[in-house]
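To illustrate the input format used throughout this study, we show a single complete record. The first block contains the structure-token representation of the backbone; no residue identities are included at this stage. The design step must infer an amino acid for every position from geometry alone.
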């Protein structure tokens, strides 16, 4: 075997190689493949049930008859008729697919070892979720119907305008009023780690945000972290599962990723996207709903969108619109998440930690390095595991003498 020796230039290049080593993309395990194939089937079933339930209410005439029953119960008062009917429809649309929900969210997750939740806790979550849905329904269901009565031709525009502050308010209060209904939030016991998290947050410009640890391991094995809230409600939240699974550098990268969503207004971007979809969807529903009523009003049992019995028609239309726009919506969200990965890398400058975090996130959630077409198109809101690990390995402008994309948002350590 021929020997070799390094020239001065070769030795310099060797010395200049970064200290990190590339972390390879893991192979897809048979268990992960089977899990994701099942998730695809559940997604298809969810879409079918979500569309069939409102159609059943419409074409059977149940919706019209139920509104009549509600009207009699409340003495013909319009507001209470709308509210009672919307609440009943919400309850029915939750309870009818409950066997499918149980199979998907409880049985299937347990079968693959992703949940250790007890039946009692699962039922409690379902009940809490239904209560929250009923309260929100009672607060907003009357808004489009009042506007339909006052402005039948432009209701889709004014309804979007009226619901915008409602959605903003829900975003602001959700971390302090709704999230605690489903998880126990407490102080982080590891004060040294908390100090590291707060120091990283300060480098990004997040000051005065408390750090909460969620006792999630009692019910789930999934790894979660997020930065949420607005003004006094802002908070950094870490599940105990992710604290237990990751090293400190890996965890700090995840926090850095989540900080970008908060600092650069990603939630507001997604909210704006949903409002645009709502506006376009309601316009399409106005046109399509009028055509449907002209043809099937006899079977439906009502002849105007202003009738509360039209609620299943509105919801069917919005579900159909959401299904159509989902591929574009997922692509936008993947781009947002990719930039959050970039921010996390730039603020921590630790490629090994970022790639290692992705490997663990994939392993703990039975992730696929390269998901199939259905998942990539309709269900994948983040870049693929393979893409994220490769990016974490390759992106290091700080070592290449290049400027940081988010350098103006990151303070020196």
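Output of the design step:
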């Amino acid at each position: 075997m021929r020997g070799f020796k390094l020239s001065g230039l070769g030795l310099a290049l060797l010395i200049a190689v970064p200290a990190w080593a590339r972390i390879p993309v893991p192979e897809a395990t048979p268990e992960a493949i089977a899990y994701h194939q099942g998730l695809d089937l559940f997604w298809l079933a969810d879409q079918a049930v979500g569309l069939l339930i409102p159609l059943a209410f419409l074409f059977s005439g149940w919706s019209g008859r139920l509104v009549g029953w509600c009207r009699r119960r409340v003495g013909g008062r319009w507001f209470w008729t709308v509210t009672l009917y919307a609440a009943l429809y919400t309850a029915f649309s939750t309870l009818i697919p409950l066997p499918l929900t149980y199979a998907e969210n409880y049985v299937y997750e347990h079968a693959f070892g992703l949940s250790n939740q007890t039946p009692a806790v699962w039922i409690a979550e379902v009940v809490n979720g239904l209560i929250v849905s009923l309260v929100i329904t009672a607060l907003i269901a009357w808004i489009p119907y009042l506007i339909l009565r006052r402005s039948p031709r432009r209701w889709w525009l004014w309804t979007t305008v009226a619901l915008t502050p409602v959605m903003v308010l829900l975003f602001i209060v959700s971390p302090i009023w709704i999230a605690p209904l489903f998880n126990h939030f407490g102080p982080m016991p590891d004060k040294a780690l908390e100090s590291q998290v707060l120091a990283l947050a300060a480098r990004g410009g997040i000051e005065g945000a408390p750090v909460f640890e969620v006792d999630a391991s009692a019910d789930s094995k999934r790894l979660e972290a997020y930065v949420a809230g607005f003004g006094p409600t802002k908070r950094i939240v870490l599940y105990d599962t992710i604290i237990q699974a990751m090293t400190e550098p890996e965890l700090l990268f995840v926090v850095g990723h989540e900080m970008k969503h908060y600092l650069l207004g990603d939630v507001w971007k997604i909210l704006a996207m949903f409002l645009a979809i709502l506006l376009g969807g309601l316009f399409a529903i106005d046109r399509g709903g009028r055509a449907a009523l002209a043809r099937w009003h006899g079977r439906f049992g009502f002849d105007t969108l202003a009738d509360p019995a039209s609620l299943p028609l509105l919801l069917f239309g919005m579900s159909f619109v959401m299904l159509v726009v989902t591929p574009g919506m997922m692509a936008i969200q993947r781009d947002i998440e990719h930039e959050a990965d970039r921010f996390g890398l730039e603020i921590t400058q630790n490629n090994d930690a970022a790639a290692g975090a992705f490997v663990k996130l994939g392993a703990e959630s039975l992730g696929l390095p390269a998901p199939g077409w259905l998942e990539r198109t309709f269900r994948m809101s983040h870049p693929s595991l393979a893409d994220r690990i490769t990016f974490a390995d390759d992106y290091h402008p700080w070592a290449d003498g290049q400027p940081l994309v988010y350098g103006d948002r990151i303070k020196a350590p």
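Structural context for interpreting the output: Confidence is low (pLDDT under 50) at residues 1-19. Residues 26-409 form one domain.
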